[in-house]
Design goal:
This is DUF1501 domain-containing protein. Residues 1-32 form the signal peptide. Pfam families: DUF1501. InterPro entries: DUF1501, TAT_signal. There is one protein chain. The chain is α/β, with parallel strands linked by helices. The chain has one domain: 3-Layer(aba) Sandwich (Alkaline Phosphatase, subunit A), CATH 3.40.720. The chain is 31% helix and 13% strand. The chain has 12 helices and 12 strands. The protein has helices at residues 6-11, 51-54, 63-66, 95-99, 119-128, 142-148, 188-200, 202-212, 233-255, 275-297, 368-380, 384-391, and strands at 29-33, 39-45, 55-56, 79-80, 86-87, 103-110, 176-178, 259-266, 304-310, 330-335, 344-345, 366-367. Strands 1, 2, 6, 7, 8, 9, 10, 11 and 12 form a 9-stranded mixed sheet that branches. Strands 3-5-4 form a 3-stranded antiparallel sheet. The chain starts with 5 loop residues before the first helix and ends in a 14-residue tail after the last helix.
Length: 405
């Protein structure tokens, strides 16, 4: 494919996702070593995963009415989990994990982020792990702050591949970076500019939204395709699937050695239009990542916890283009032999209009950071005070979730 300059990227109509934040051009994987035997993998799902479609509350009487044109409005639309929730069919390959107690979900969760529903701010807050994004919060991530609390931290084997740490692992603690080969690279500033262009210009916004239904987001990155170019969409989808498998396999191989923490992202979750076509592609990449991790880790899978989290959820009601818009409460996924799966943990608020946040979104009933905090407490024995004051400032961990061993 012809190389594209950044100027062309921003000035010509390209087949990209609905927003640059939902599918960044470069998805580095960040790794760190620690003095424990357990392993932690954090996957950032960029673009706001629709938790209500992934883990479908078909038992809630308001669910089907809110989504008449989206599959899953009844038990037959998904894979039944517990008589109230069902799993999106695109994750069917993970059902053996569910039955083995190695896969679970937390529903009606969110970060403290509210109302503005910007991908970039939402993702920054998710990775910073702070209550807000004020100037005093700095630019370090919660995983890095956790590493700073551990005496004798040392860097992992040095990898000079990749361009920048994920924010979640950015900070004073030493980490290594690796990223798969990509054709296009865009700085965070460039991605922010692209988002402004797309969201302020209706024509751009429509073009990006349309393209999101046609292209897989790759290994978390965007693929630039000139307007009018005939592309093999099946081939692009296969390339994207292979990309995330490569990332997951590399993470698994490192975790078999000295590495104890890995974090990477998967894009493609911004489903404003034709969600029945777009969401399965992202879910397939997530499923592939988990299956490759488990296969690569072997017996070490039993000492591993995987946490997959997203910046915010999506609206309860579908929109006019068979999609969903930016929302608030959503779902997170936990996997691995070090969690107590086979359940959907939730303090379910219900989907009646009066129960919704701003009468449009799933009401969050627990902070997503609390689940991440309890995972680290269970894996690494961190004190609750360290988690609540240093790793996640201002967090109340609350009671131990049933998903945590």
């Amino acid at each position: 494919m012809t190389d594209w300059t950044r100027r062309k990227l921003l000035t010509r109509s390209l087949a990209l996702g609905c927003s640059a934040a939902a599918s960044p051009l470069l998805t580095p994987i960040s790794l760190a070593a620690g003095p424990w035997d357990n392993r932690l993998v954090v996957i950032i799902l960029r673009g706001a995963m629709d938790g209500l479609d992934v883990v479908q509350p078909y038992g809630d009487p308001a669910y089907a009415a809110a989504r008449p044109n989206l599959k899953g409005g009844e038990a037959g639309g998904g894979l039944d989990l517990d008589g109230y929730f069902s799993l999106h069919p695109a994750l069917e390959a993970l059902m053996p994990m569910w039955r083995a107690g190695e896969l679970g979900f937390a529903h009606a969760v969110s970060t403290p982020y509210r109302d503005k529903r910007s991908h970039f701010d939402g993702q920054d807050l998710l990775e910073a792990g702070t209550p807000d994004l004020g100037p005093a919060t700095g630019r370090d991530g919660w995983l890095n702050r956790m590493l700073q609390t551990v005496p004798g931290m040392r860097p992992d084997l040095a990898y000079a591949i990749g361009h920048e740490n994920l924010l979640i692992l950015t900070g004073q603690a030493p980490v290594a970076n690796w990223s798969p080969d990509v054709r296009l690279k865009l700085s965070p500033q460039g991605r922010r500019l692209a988002e402004l262009v797309m969201h302020d210009d209706p024509a751009f916004a429509d073009a990006f939204a349309e393209a999101a239904q046609q292209l897989d987001s790759g290994d978390g990155g965007m693929m630039a395709v000139p307007t009018g170019t005939d592309m093999d969409m099946a081939g692009l989808s296969k390339k994207g699937t292979e990309g995330i498998r490569q990332v997951a396999a590399f993470a698994g191989e490192k975790l078999l050695g000295d590495t104890r923490i890995a974090s990477f992202s998967i894009g493609g979750w911004d489903t404003h239009r034709f969600q029945p076509g777009a969401l399965p592609r992202a879910l397939t990449q997530l499923s592939d990542a988990l299956l490759v991790l488990k296969s690569t880790l072997g017996d070490t899978w039993g000492k591993t916890a995987v946490v997959a989290m997203t910046e915010f959820g999506r609206t309860v009601r579908e929109n006019g283009t068979r999609g969903t818009d930016h929302g608030t409460g959503g779902a997170m996924l936990l996997a691995g032999g070090a969690i107590r799966g086979g359940q959907v943990a939730r303090d379910w608020p219900g989907l009646s209009e009066a129960a919704l946040y701003q009468r449009r979104d799933l009401m969050p009933t627990r902070d997503v950071r609390a689940y991440a905090g309890w995972v680290m407490r269970g894996l690494f024995g961190l004190d609750a005070s360290v988690l609540e004051r240093t790793v996640f400032p201002g967090l109340d961990l609350g009671p131990r979730p049933s998903l945590i061993l």
